[in-house]
Amino acid sequence: MSSTEPGRTGTASASHTRLTTAARSGRTVALVAGAARVWRAARERGMTLAERAAESVTPAGWLVIAAGSAGLVTGAILGWVEWIVAGIASAVMLALALPFLFGARAYDVEVFLDHERVVAGGVVGGEIRIRNRGRSTQLPGRLDLPVGDGLVELGVPLLRADHVVAQPLTLPAERRGIITVGPPTTVRSDPIGLVRREHAWDDVHRLYVHPRTVSVPSTSAGLIRDLEGNPTRRLVEADMSFHAIREYAPGDTRRQIHWKSTAKTGQLMVRQFEESRRSRMAIVLGLAAAEFADADEFELAVSAAASLGTRAIRDGRDLDVVIGAEIPRAVRGRLQAVRDLTAASPRALLDGFCAVRTLEETMPVEGVCRLTAETKTTLSIAIIVCGSQVTPSRLRRAALAFPADTAVLVIRCDERAHPRVQTPGGMGVLTIGVLDDLASLMLRGAA
Prior knowledge:
By secondary structure, the chain is an alpha/beta fold. The protein is built from 9 helices and 20 strands. Strand 17, helix 8 (392-400) and strand 18 (407-413) form a beta-alpha-beta unit.
């Protein structure tokens, strides 16, 4: 028994030692893991604060920091008191600027526009409303409102709690396009402009600046027979729209004899109808920059295409508006692409024209016409809108891309030319110098 007891004691001591060592190792690992987590959190917090600080310092502020650091280091090394004083002054300026960043503007900001669509050259009114949703009075501040590529700066006066102030807005819409209005951004900055802090809201509006359009006359050019179409002035023997009763003529079908009138008059009388027609029209606009003399000529072409498109929609025609698409330089020559604008309503079509611009890498107008003819079947009329740099031979190739039973009309935009109507090879070519020429030339050349 005596020999056994020491062995048990030794075993128990070894077990106790192992347990104590394991417990200490576990606590050490936990401490190390906790310290690592604290370090990561502190590092992330420090990086976040550093990023915010870097965003808050303006270029002028960085210049002051650099000048102050250089002044203190150089003055201390060389013993130049003036440089040390300059460094201290820079540090004092920066320290005095920092309190202007403290606190937050308790604002609710809303932007209202009178209209979200306007014609190029017009003006859109609106207002921006600022409410102090805090419990304390807010000091005067500044509000920035991005408008397209520009910036509107608005001063915010002293606002009491729950007080609202409205600032009027006047936004000129000089040229066609889509203007992004917003988001409004409050700006906190020191008087010198060393530091700056911004807060943006999510209130963003899109202002559609439509191209100028004119009212063009409706025409029957290119219409095809269709029982579900609209009646015209042309009289036919059989259709859906009844017109009148006339005397029988040799060649008339007997199915159209009106027997009641025949009994009254004693001679054969037949029914006469107005021909019903329906048009499927395509308006083709090339976007190659080389086909237009300048930006104003391209705007004229866009306005002409938009005028014709809105007229066709109001006439109830089936319409396809096809424009060139951008083609990457690497696949140019191997890829053909066009783009369709939505023509469900005049507003949708004009919204689509707002984003149209000239392209350097795109198909020429004759290529756009060829692809349109291949993809749009049963076209009765095709209107090609192009610039002055497209030669007559290219126009002929563009017109020949369409089937023989498709009437082709060319609207050639040239601000330096006199308005005229030409019919080379049976193809109607209308040359316009200003948008108002389109209506009169359509009456002369396409009625």
